[in-house]
């Protein structure tokens, strides 16, 4: 990579990192505003803000994937990425990756059935999107439900608010880690490029080999990648 190309990548990474930081700040503000509404007894509106906050959290993940693609030299269709950032379905489905796997997905993984695990996840992913979108709309609008008009206060329960508040707090933690990772990409691009490129290369080889227990092999590869990353970052912090 030439110096000019490296400089171009660095500028792009910085822009994405700043975008992720702004997105996280907005998600955090939405969380606190939702808490104020909840304390005032506005349960349905509080749920709505938590849902929007969750969607902002998912954008941090998308920006992180974009940054990693730039770092490793992968082609990025900017228009498609920006369109995905605006679609509710894309944001909900992105968040689904952070949920605990369904029983069907876990069962498929235990058998080493990668295809079955993926199919089970896709089912859960779609269900999560539909449930999230339905609750968000129910929190705002009066709709015709089961033969009668129903107000948001009749459809959004206290338990629904408790559940989404807990999920949002957890996902804000994930998003915060994502922002820190992106800042690291901008300060140590060469080191992070080496880590990520090596992982991508090994993952591609694993897919081509079609290992018998591909789920276990991929999980082992991911575990090694995370350990290598933590060790590299720890060493870097030690010498700074």
Q: Which properties best describe this structure?
A:
two-stranded antiparallel ribbon, 240 residues, mainly alpha, 2 strands
List the helices and strands and how they pair.
Layout: H1 3-39, H2 43-71, H3 78-86, H4 88-95, H5 103-110, H6 114-138, E1 143-145, E2 148-150, H7 152-155, H8 158-187, H9 189-209, H10 214-239
Antiparallel strand pairs: 1-2
Helix pairs in contact: 1-2, 1-8, 2-4, 2-6, 2-8, 4-6, 5-6, 8-9, 9-10
As a percent range, the share of helical residues equals over 70%
Class inferred from helices and paired strands: mainly alpha
In total, the number of domains comes to: 1
Tell me the number of strands: 2
Low-confidence parts = 1-11
Strand order of the largest sheet: 1-2
Shape: globular
Number of helices: 10
Kindly provide the radius of gyration, computed on alpha-carbon positions and rounded to a whole number of angstroms: 20 Å
Largest sheet: 2 strands, antiparallel
Query: What is the straight-line distance between the termini?
Result: 26 Å
What is the string of helix and strand elements?
HHHHHHEEHHHH
Mean pLDDT: 84
Q: How large is the share of residues in beta strands?
A: under 5%
């Amino acid at each position: 990579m030439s110096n000019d190309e490296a400089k171009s990548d660095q500028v792009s990474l910085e822009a994405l990192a700043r975008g992720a930081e702004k997105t996280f700040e907005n998600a955090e503000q939405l969380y606190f505003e939702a808490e104020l509404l909840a304390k005032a007894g506005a349960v349905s509106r509080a749920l709505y803000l938590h849902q929007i906050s969750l969607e902002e959290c998912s954008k941090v993940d998308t920006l992180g994937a974009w940054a990693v693609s730039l770092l490793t030299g992968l082609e990025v269709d900017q228009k498609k990425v920006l369109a995905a950032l605006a679609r509710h379905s894309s944001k909900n489905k992105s968040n689904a990756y952070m949920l605990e796997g369904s029983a069907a997905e876990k069962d498929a993984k235990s058998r080493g059935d990668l295809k079955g695990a993926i199919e089970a996840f896709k089912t859960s992913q779609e269900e999560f999107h539909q449930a999230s979108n339905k609750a968000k709309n129910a929190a705002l609008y009066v709709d015709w439900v089961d033969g009668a008009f129903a107000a948001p206060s009749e459809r959004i329960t206290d338990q629904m608010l408790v559940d989404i508040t807990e999920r949002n707090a957890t996902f804000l933690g994930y998003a915060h880690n994502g922002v820190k990772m992106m800042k690291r990409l901008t300060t140590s691009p060469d080191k992070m490029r080496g880590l990520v490129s090596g992982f991508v290369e090994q993952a591609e080889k694993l897919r081509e080999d079609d290992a018998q227990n591909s789920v276990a092999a991929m999980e082992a590869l991911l575990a090694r990648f995370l350990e290598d990353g933590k060790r590299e970052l720890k060493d870097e912090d030690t010498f700074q």
